[in-house]
């Protein structure tokens, strides 16, 4: 029972991030079809699974096409009630649904002015009044949810829920553009930056595809504000400690070095996503900890 999810460029497709989190965060079985934004219009690349025209699009094991991320959240929650995609408490669940729905439909000024770009962070962006109005509303609803249901943890309505998956790209915009928010809101942004699932997504984005000019902005760049990755690098040295890829168990053919140690992987993508953020990958860190 494996889902097929069609995703756009990891560094830029904020909607795709939401759809992927709905599967990955709750460990549901899935395979990915990558839709490269550099290969032409998305709708044309999706023609074989009509009526889908956008990413993310989810195809269920029996072949049903779900081309809307909020519908994906609801359908996955219905199919996997044990997963906890929505909170179990009725009031928290209703609030989480309202949060996700408002994110799904709103905040156009923020989206337009600050497109998600996980390859860049900016030091001198000045938000417009419309963007500040969106931020004020975001802070209002985050604060409401946190005070009612999330005061004891990192997330909006208690445990991580679909509402947090939907707001992950908003958190990345706040982080990437250095947008002014309260201490409480900044703590929520930092929880997303540190979330291992998000870190894996960003690492894959740094390893697949390239810069897309339409998402770039002409502001001074600064280092990415998330956790600083371990200092791994690509190497031609093949004297790896492991003979099987930590992800696929296939024979190793590509290599990285970390702290003077060599580790192998079955392909360039497995290696490069690990180089981008080694600590985000539990299977790799298990290898490191064996040494």
Walkthrough of the structure:
The protein has 291 residues and is of the alpha+beta class. It has 3 domains: 3-83, Glutaredoxin (3-Layer(aba) Sandwich), CATH 3.40.30.10; 90-199, Glutathione S-transferase Yfyf (Class Pi), Chain A, domain 2; 232-290, no CATH class. It has helices at residues 14-24, 42-45, 69-79, 90-105, 108-113, 129-150, 162-177, 183-194, 196-207, 268-276, 282-290; strands at 3-7, 30-34, 57-59, 65-66, 121-122, 221-222, 232-235, 254-258, 261-265. The strands form 3 sheets. Strands 2-1-3-4 form a 4-stranded mixed β-sheet. Strand 3 and strand 4 (65-66) form a beta hairpin. The model has no long low-confidence stretch (mean pLDDT 97). GO terms for molecular function: glutathione transferase activity; maleylacetoacetate isomerase activity. This is GST N-terminal domain-containing protein. Residues 3-84 form the GST N-terminal domain.
């Amino acid at each position: 029972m494996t889902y097929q999810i069609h995703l756009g460029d990891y560094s830029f497709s904020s909607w795709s991030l939401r759809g992927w989190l709905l599967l990955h965060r709750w460990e549901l079985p899935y395979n990915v079809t990558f839709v490269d934004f550099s290969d032409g219009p998305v709708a044309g690349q999706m023609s074989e699974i009509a009526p889908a025209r956008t990413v993310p699009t989810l195809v269920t094991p029996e072949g049903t096409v779900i081309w809307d991320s909020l519908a994906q959240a609801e359908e996955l929650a219905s199919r996997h009630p044990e997963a906890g995609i929505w909170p179990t408490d009725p009031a928290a669940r209703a609030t989480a649904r309202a949060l996700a729905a408002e994110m799904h439909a709103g905040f156009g000024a923020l989206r337009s002015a600050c497109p998600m770009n996980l390859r860049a962070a900016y030091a001198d962006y000045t938000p417009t009044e419309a963007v500040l109005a969106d931020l004020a509303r975001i802070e209002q609803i985050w604060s409401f949810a946190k005070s009612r249901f999330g005061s004891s943890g990192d997330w909006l309505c208690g445990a991580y829920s679909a509402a947090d998956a939907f707001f992950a790209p908003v958190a990345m915009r706040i982080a990437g553009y250095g947008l002014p928010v309260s201490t409480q809101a900044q703590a929520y942004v930092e929880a997303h930056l540190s979330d291992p699932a998000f870190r894996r997504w960003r690492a894959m984005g740094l390893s697949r595809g390239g810069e897309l000019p339409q998402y770039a902005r002409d502001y001074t760049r600064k280092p990415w504000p998330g956790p600083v990755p371990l200092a791994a690098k690509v190497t031609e040295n093949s004297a790896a400690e492991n003979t099987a890829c930590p992800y696929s168990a296939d024979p190793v053919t590509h290599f990285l070095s970390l702290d003077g140690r060599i580790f192998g992987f079955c392909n360039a993508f497995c290696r490069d996503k690990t180089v981008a953020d080694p600590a985000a990958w539990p299977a790799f860190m298990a290898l490191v900890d064996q040494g």
